[in-house]
Amino acid sequence: MSVPLNEDSFNKPTTPPVVLMADTDASETEKQTPSKLADTPPPPPDGGLTAWLQVVGAFFLFFNSWGLLNAFGVFQSYYQSDLIPSYSSSSITWIGTVQGFLLFLVGVIVGPIFDKGYLRSLVAIGAFLVVFGLMMTSLSTEYYQLFLAHGVTVGIGCAFLFLPSIAVVATYFTSRRAVATGITASGGSIGAVIYPIMFHKLIDQVGFGWTTRIIAFVALAGLSVSLLVLKRRLPPPKQSRSLLDLGALREPTFLVFAFGLFCSFVGLYFPFFYLQSYFTFYLHDDSSLAFYIFSVLNATSVLGRITPGLLADRVGGLNTLVPISLLATILAFVWIGIRDVAGAVVFACFYGYASGAIVSLPPSILTRMSPNMTMVGTRLGMIFMFAGCGFLIGTPIASTLLHLAKAEFWKAQLFSAVFVAAGTICFVILRVILVKKVNGWKI
To answer: Which terminus of the chain, N or C, has fewer Cβ atoms within 10 Å?
Structure first.
């Protein structure tokens, strides 16, 4: 049954009637006993050393999940030009999109596990899989090896890191939740700036194998910080829960939001895979700028993940997401008409900003829409499953519309723009629905 929404449900999270602060795993939490002096836990601290340490730890989870995923464009270019040149660009794209799809899909399983208290266990497993997958990638020479190591293993590892990075931060903040989530999500963009630069600087000096291993060691160092500082605030619910919150599927607001994210992710990531190819084949620019354009795109995405969070804390996450998603739609259509390097760089800057906001804002919006904070992990896993399906099919379909030899990009660009626009329309519809359910304009 749908839970009616009111203004308080968007500004203050509800919490289960439990008392003690939870530690890292369920085995430790089960040993705790409820206090007889209170029936509810203290409210989220909304700041302080412990809360901001969670942001630091979650930042490195994002750095080594979304950071690696957003950096796949440089790997794709190398795979296509040097490592496995006999395979089509569409075939190579599947390695990256499967990685992203698994990041979202496995979240359906990771969410309930997180809700049951296994935070550090998830991070430890994710860290192992990411590092192991990168090490195996460094040894790969065939397509199937790269697919299994870089696509499947790293993708599953990223899934174990991504959802906990959002869910744990959400339980420590209320009024500052959007900005805390934005700082956390900026780790994905900063990682996607640093890793391509590392790849570019090292590939000619030490070769592909050691370049990938060095990236793996950097990931291991960052994930070790996360293991040291992350700590659950709320204990897990006593009652066991299913992998899915089927009640959410009967809520129109949840379904509209999920479909909007699906459409957005179908079109949103095409530039993150093919902007360098656009510079090389369409603009005939083979300078270092063509390579560093991915870093430009992701660097501006850092601002897009943080500054909209500051605005969202004041005017509401959905009120912020709608105009920024509209900006991304306009930019996606404008890209079709760009004919020079300067225009493409400007597009990359603004599109990176808009895409960063679209990625970072949904978790805080969904958290405020959730009727019970103990189900946040489960619902995040469900809604990102929709996004993951869009991510999986979007770029491979767009790549089939490309004709690199003829420098024909407009069909793929139009496909991408139409789906980003469809996602924007869904967000507007969601805003209209919530006007009738919420007293006040801040949503």
So the answer is: N
β-partners of residue 408 are 403
φ, ψ dihedrals at 172, nearest 5°: -100, -10
Domain ranges of the chain: 22-234+247-435
pLDDT band at 175 (very low <50, low <70, confident <90, very high): confident
Q: How far apart are CA 214 and CA 32, in angstroms?
A: 42
Q: What is the DSSP string of 213-274?
A: HHHHHHHHHHHHHHHHH---SSPPPSS---SS-GGGGG-HHHHHHHHHHHHHHHHHTHHHHH
Closest alpha carbon to 235 in 40, 20, 74, 49: 20
Which CA distances in Å does 52 have to 56, 66, 377?
6, 20, 20
Tens digits of residue pLDDT in 92-118: 989 999 998 898 888 778 877 887 788
pLDDT band at 1; cut points 50, 70, 90: very low
Per-residue HEC secondary structure of 52-76 comes to: HHHHHHHHHHHHCCHHHHHCHHHHH
**What is the spatial distance between Cα 186 and Cα 193, in angstroms, rounded to a whole number?**
11
Q: Which of 337, 245, 344, 210 is nearest to 289 (CA)?
A: 344
Q: 27 versus 271: which is more confidently predicted?
A: 271
Dihedral of the alpha carbons of 75, 81, 86, 92, in degrees to the nearest 10: 20
Tell me which DSSP letter residue 408 carries. Answer: B
